[in-house]
Records
---
Amino acid sequence: MERAENLARILDVNETFARGGSEVESWLPIVRLHAEEDLFFSRHKKAAADRVVHFYTIDRENPSSIIASVVHARENARTMRHVISTEMWTQLNVFHGWITELNRRDIRLNNLSRVCATIKESCQTHAGIVQGTLYRDQVWYFYLLGKHLERAGQTSRLVDIKSHLLDNPVGDAEVAADISQWNALLRSAAGYHAFRRVHPRGIEPDRVIEFFFFNDGFPRSVISCLDRVDTLLAGLAKAKLTAAQDLRDNLAPLQDLIHGGNVQEVRRLGLNAFIDDLQRELDSFSSELGERFFL
């Protein structure tokens, strides 16, 4: 569910960035962000807007599409029906029914923002129901571990959408467009008003980067997600799950990358390189967590 919501955010903000630009240059980064060029180009000749949007929304053959994510979420919920609430199951079924009925006409670019808004709202409703009804045992801990690891990865991908446009603006029109894009990025992550509380005047790229990666007051920031993961693993370790303490130790490279980082370090490495390193560490840690507890 977290992946479905964040994919909707990425598509929504990219549609905003893509207006007036080259179609392929605007939409190919979405495919590259998820390292799915081979699968995509085995079925499509070019990264046209309608094909990329279809690939990531209602293409059932793409395992990371929104529809595939929701279908998997519903199947996971079905197998765990005895430990989740009736409200959680009912809402997920309604959402599943709506999204499986979407067609190509529904996801045209002039309607994409509305579709993404509905997806985000449905995912947020799900999160609220889970918060209010799921019993606080190991099910709760593992649910949140998956949620925050996924959120950290998707937040970094959301910023990476902008990284390929980071060349310095050269004129007033370019500067205005650049500010507008950072504004859209903040809004896509529901972070605009939170950012304004920290920085009430102006939108500067370095401040936005710092906000998304290093500000622990913003719940979608990478540092906030990783701190939550560490807290959850500590809770599982107290419940005598010895593998949880081992995983806390193995979380150290990720923690060091974020807690020891700052905007100047990101600039030195390059935003794209920094995000690549972060995503590799996240993928490695997520795989290890799955192997330790579920395989």
---
Amino acid sequence: MRSGIQTSDYETAPDRSEAPVARTSVIRAFTVMVIDDSKTIRRSAEALLRKEGFEVVTAVDGFEALSKIADHEPDLIFLDVMMPRLDGYQTCALIKHHQVFRHTPVVMLSSKDGLFDRARGRVVGSDHFITKPFSRDELLAVIEKYGNGAD
């Protein structure tokens, strides 16, 4: 459904004495990053999203996430609020202050559903907030909302 597709078409070289030249373009898969210190959350979200055809990258904390974001350039990031070393708020602020990734949607994940937590997420630039435990439908609805036609 959303997996990467390789397409090729051929175009003849201008002077006709050369063989046709292959022109290849790659349509890459929609990549979702899941950042959570809980192995259970990472694995369940990854399995669910891969089953739906998404490319998934995971990270255990903000530090690991920042290096993987540069390498994988995710289209959407699910980010746990409470993590050791670099929490979700700090990680979100760093992502949103980066010129290349500031427009990447960041969805905060938290077991707390307080107004303060949601407001703090907005202050650091998060685009959405989901309370854990989340459902398959909640994750897919957010991806649909921020996916910008990535099918």
---
Amino acid sequence: MFVLNHQNTVANHFLAELRDIHKQNDRLRFRSNLERLGEIMAYELSKSLHYDSKLVQTPFKKLSMDLLASQPVVISILRASVPFFQGVINFFDQADSGFIGAFRKAHSGQGDVEVELGYMAAPPIEGKTVIVVDPMLATGKSFVESVNHLLNNGSPSMIHIVSVIASPEGVSYIKEHLSIPHEFWLCALDEALNDKAYIIPGLGDAGDLAFGPKL
């Protein structure tokens, strides 16, 4: 498991602004910070992928360079992931992408949270490296439900789960219920979930902060 804020980097400034209630009312800045963290996480994740040596013709001679052996497939869990996902594909700019609409049906408690999938548009993923992007990993149920639905498009070789903030409960739930090889890429691993299954200390509702409240 990679956790970005275990290191002292400028990325912690972006994460701090996302959490700061005095800065959260600036939606443009909130989305921009999500996008910047998406770029940073894509860069860190890219170090774990497979590379092949390929010849590149410069104006003067051919040069051998290690380039990605194949592009991943990047899956966005709507709606909060949109700016975070944009950061990821800014770096994996030749990757195929997919979109899954997942939302909570109930909020009364962690055990009562149900996830509904309302939409999916995704490419074939058979044998592919898949990156699933969602800024908030709370209960982990939307990740597992989304991946199970995604398996209709094939069986991936590896799933990389990329989030800004995760709870220990969500990480444990995914480890228990996801049999496909997977790795976690987190900006922060927080303390716990509260009785409404929101991450503490977290940052609130990322979708509402990025795009405004929903009915």
